């Protein structure tokens, strides 16, 4: 028997989605399980991961971050090696050898608006002032729980695959480096970024469609480095739109062709009032009350998506996964100078010789929230189209191979034009001068040279589901680097003689998976030393090393051969240090309580929550060393909001100087929407 699990994880504003799959020999080809769990870590006072900018500190929430193979998609900047190791430890203690590093893949969507401090190597946690245990625990707990959900949800079902082009959700942010690739190679491709989205549709034998996982290349940088709200960026937004669409539009039907953006309609109070004045009079009956204690589960119990879901039906899980996005930006209007408004220098992305003023513009410029929604909506609409038209059913083996490889001095055999070969080596990890310059998505603050000697043992992994092969890579491959890797693996698989692999083979790259080691460019792109080339840690032959090792894995997979595990990565959890000032206590001004009270009036119905793009939670501390803080909740009222009486409810937590964390709840006074 073989199984597949898919997991999507979300944290206080991030999500993890998990797919678990098992092949069975019955009417249904596979057993499928999906799960989703909150992984949002601290939403205040913690540096965000992605831009490496110490000034980008979390201050609220934009929206929330959910033989066997398990694929976990996390709304995070990247997977973490130490998180992966600890998740595997927990799974082994619970399930034995059922889930291991060989058949569990954890991939990040690459949002740059999530809490940092959860990786184990210094270079990645400098800006977060070291290791942040709260972030780490949120990830490990959430990933484990999402896999448990998927495991317990295993049911007979089918998987369908579909591919299609999405043209307006990404542009190449380093075009001069791309142009350094051979002209004959570039001529094979119409675009300088990958425009294809690949989607899996999961159908339960009893309930019908229960989920979708898609892969498309675009960076999670619609939200800029000046943003301080926790956010899943454009891929997180796309997932929420897809899940909401399904919950609101399908009901008992299997398919709905409409691609309208999902909107919820208020059912708080039936709209029988004839005038605005009557609504105001009604709203005046509901004033705010002093805050009161609340159970820790109160917030999750009143979440909108929980209320919409049928108790006996699996919740629909959608994940928008990352692939070879290394040189792909969602800021599709291009890069411009802040001072002049003119396009940035083509070769160096500078303005007057400096990089700090060169920024990419998203389609909603100058509103980055709008840009996030637009790029998310474009991915959602393409995924929905592929979902509704998916007809190619996956059938066949479920299998996997995984190996640890030391990339610091890897011997790589390269073919020569005369038919001979030469052996080259990768380099010990180091970053070049241009790394510090940043990119048009987030320029560096200064120009400096940086090199860092980091552990170089990386996990390479292939998951097979019939004719679909998922390559889990611990880094960000550029467009052409990803194309070369996919082509090499396809060629290797085709030459294997496996009869199941006749016809078209599908190969997708799952980026930022099981760990993180910066970028991977082609040899030619490396010579240009744009940001991506300067961030290719193991030198100009890094890509060739990946191709060589993945060809070995592919061969062993189709021939049924075992592979040696390779050198084990270090576990540095006990050696982590944190210099982040801890929360000592929370307090309020004299005479005030935490939160505003909630009445016992049962007519109130949740209609929006912090997973909705129209609702934003902003946290601030007026004075740096003060124990007092304040929260602002903004509701950007959608045009589709139903006229009626509304109020905003907040669930929070406060720490006393002596004692445990206390949870509280409250609400605003009622107000009218007409």
Walkthrough of the structure:
The longest helix has 22 residues, at 368-389. It is built from 13 helices and 36 strands. It is α+β, with helices and mostly antiparallel strands and 674 residues long. It is 21% helix and 27% strand. The protein is globular, with a radius of gyration of 25 Å. Mean pLDDT is 84; it is low at 10-14, 252-257, 263-273, 445-454 and 596-600.
Describe this structure in a few short sentences.
Residues 600-673 form the Neutral/alkaline non-lysosomal ceramidase C-terminal domain. This protein is an alpha+beta fold.
Question: Notable features of this structure?
Answer:
five-stranded antiparallel sheet, 674 residues, ten-stranded mixed sheet
Low-confidence stretches are 10-14, 252-257, 263-273, 445-454, 596-600
Number of helices: 13
Biggest pleated-sheet summary = 10 strands, mixed
**Count of strand segments:** 36
In helices, the fraction of residues equals 10-25%
* Rg, alpha carbons: 25 Å
Shape: globular
The class by helix and strand makeup works out as alpha+beta
Estimate what percentage of residues fall within beta strands.
25-35%
- Mean pLDDT, as a whole number? 84
Distance between the termini: 57 Å
